[in-house]
User: What shape does this take?
Amino acid sequence: MQTYRLALIGFGNVGQGFARILCDFGEQYEKDFGARFVITAVSDLQKGSVYNPEGLVPADLLNAVEVSGSLEPVAAPFKGWDALKTITESNADVVAELSFTDLKTGEPAISHLKAAIKAGKHVITTNKGPVALAFRELTKLAQEHGVTIGVEGSVMSGTPSLRLGTEMLHAAGVTCIQGIVNGTTNYILSQMDAGAAYADALAEAQAKGYAEADPTGDVEGFDAAGKVVIMANLLMGGNITMSDVDRQGITNLTVDDIKSARARGERWKLIARVEKAGQGVKASVKPQCLPVTHPLAGVNGATNAITYTTTLLGDVTLIGPGAGRLPTGFALVEDLLALHRSLK
Ligand code: HSE
Assistant: This one.
C-alpha cells in the first residue's frame, strides 16, 4: 500500500467534493489501486486552516464546514497556517491547489504551485488560471524538481478530456476541437430555453456550485476562453494566451432570442473552438444558434461536450459533467491515480 499525504489549498466546492469522495470511496481505492490518500492539511482563506501530520478525518472536515462554515471546530495540533506555510512546512507529498480562479494573473495559484514544486512536492490542480497562463513554465519547473503536475480538472471537470487528448488522441493528429466547455452558461441557456429568467437561472447555477466565485467569468466567456487556451496549448501544440481568443459571452442573448430560435427549431449554445491555422492555431468562444438535430444542441444543463476532429479517427466526441463538486473533486482522484501509476 502506498500512502499519499495531501495538503488542500482551498476548501470550497472542489475540496469538499474531494473530501466527500474520500469518505465514500477511499477504502475502495485502497483495495483496487493499492493507494491510500490521506489529507493532512487544509488551508482556506475564509474557513481557516488545520494540520495534523497523522491525517485529518475527511468527514470531520465536511461536518465542521456544514455546521459552522469554518474549519475551526476540527481538532488538530496545528491551526492557522497560511497557504504558503502549509505548502512548504506540512508533510504533504502532494499539494492540491484549489484556490479561486483568476484568469488575469493566475494568482495566488501560480505562486502556490511554484512554492510546492520548489519544495519537491507533486501538484494537482483544477484551477484554470495557472494552467491557461503558466503551464509551460510550471511544467519546466516540475521537471527540474522531479515532480509531476496534474491538471485534468481544468477542462470538463472529472470527465477525462485532457487525458483523452494528450494520451490517446494526440497521435491521431488533432486538427480541431470544438464543444461546450462551460457548465454555468450551458445550464443558464438550457433553463432559459425551458422558460426561466436569466437571473434565476444564474442564481441556480451558483447554488449548484457550477459558477465561478465571480460568475462574470462564466457569462462573459472568460472561463470558456481559458479552457480553449488550455486545449490549444496542451492538445494542439499551440502557444496562445487569453487575448488570442476571439471571445463573446452570453450576456447579450435575450429571452426573445432564445424563444425565436426555439420557434425555428434551433438552440443557442456557447461554442468554444480551436483549430489549426497555418503554423499556429485559431481560437474562439461565441454563442451559436444550432439546429436541434445538431449533436451539441442536445447537450443540456451543466453537461459539457467536446468533439475532437482528428486525421486518423475522424471525429471523436466526449460528453460528460463539466462542473460541480463531485465531478470536479473526482478530477483530483484521476490525477492522483495517474501519479500513483507513474511512481509504481
Ligand atoms: N464555472 C465553471 C463552469 C466550472 O461553469 O463550467 C468548471 O470549470
